[in-house]
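Objective 1b of the project was to move from sequence-level analysis to a structural picture of ligand recognition. The entry below was assembled by the postdoctoral researcher (A.K.) and checked by the PI before modelling. It contains the amino acid sequence of the target and the SMILES of the bound compound, magnesium ion.
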Amino acid sequence: MIVVSDVVKRYGAFTAVDGVSLDVKPGQIHGFLGPNGAGKTTTIRMIAGLLKPTSGRITVNGHDLATSPEGAKASLGFIPDRPFIYEKLTAGEFLRFHAGLYGLEGAAVEERLNEMLEIFELTRWRDELIESFSHGMKQRLVMSAAFMHRPQAVLVDEPMVGLDPRGARLIKDVFRRMADHGVAILMSTHTLEVAEEMCDLVSIILKGRIIASGTVDDLRRLAGGDDEELTPVFLKLTGGSGLQEIDEVV
Ligand SMILES: Nc1ncnc2c1ncn2[C@@H]1O[C@H](COP(=O)(O)OP(=O)(O)OP(=O)(O)O)[C@@H](O)[C@H]1O
Ligand SMILES: [Mg+2]
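Corresponding predicted holo structure:
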């Protein structure tokens, strides 16, 4: 469970996140949508405990990030948009390192590691250096690491970028399965079809504020209800098609 209450993040005079509230319940996949620079990554990094909010409150699985950051982080899995991976490690070493960060020990580590490699179709790469991995393989490895400690809440910033259809299908299935087991998932994405296919609820953020929340069908109705396609729905809600600017170019 992820509860964000009226969270603000200011950088000097600039307000990147301006009073955001979110409530992601166990078993839900909550899509976080919005144009570039709207404040998605900033919000996600605050929930992950990597950035301190200027004001507001965040709890993860009942742990207040301000007073019980360890409890919050221990029950959270975080998959950043640009993960740092030390590429001189093998896949197995990377997962063991990650397990150590979360205090996993003993035989359980190898068991869980093999399980993760199997799920993410990386078993035969276990002892290969990460530097030889493709983008999609690295992406799947980062997810394996984030799920090693069985988090009850998961944050994912742009999980589908650069994945081939098979990889995307795999990730979608894994997330759905996790949600079915009661995990709360907050996922930012620019792919509206991904949001429609995967998300129980979505919130749209614009200039640091949530401007709409609900099911994808709720958003369609909010945008006037005459678009089946999601791109015009999104553009109507966030204001601007950009077509005039394109005319300027030609
Ligand atoms: N350290 C910082 N100092 C000043 N401004 C920042 C800082 N980090 C982020 N910002 C600003 O905060 C705003 C929100 O950025 P953020 O990365 O959260 O957007 P986003 O919604 O994730 O965008 P994208 O879709 O491009 O990933 C942007 O205007 C960005 O320039
Ligand atoms: Mg971002």
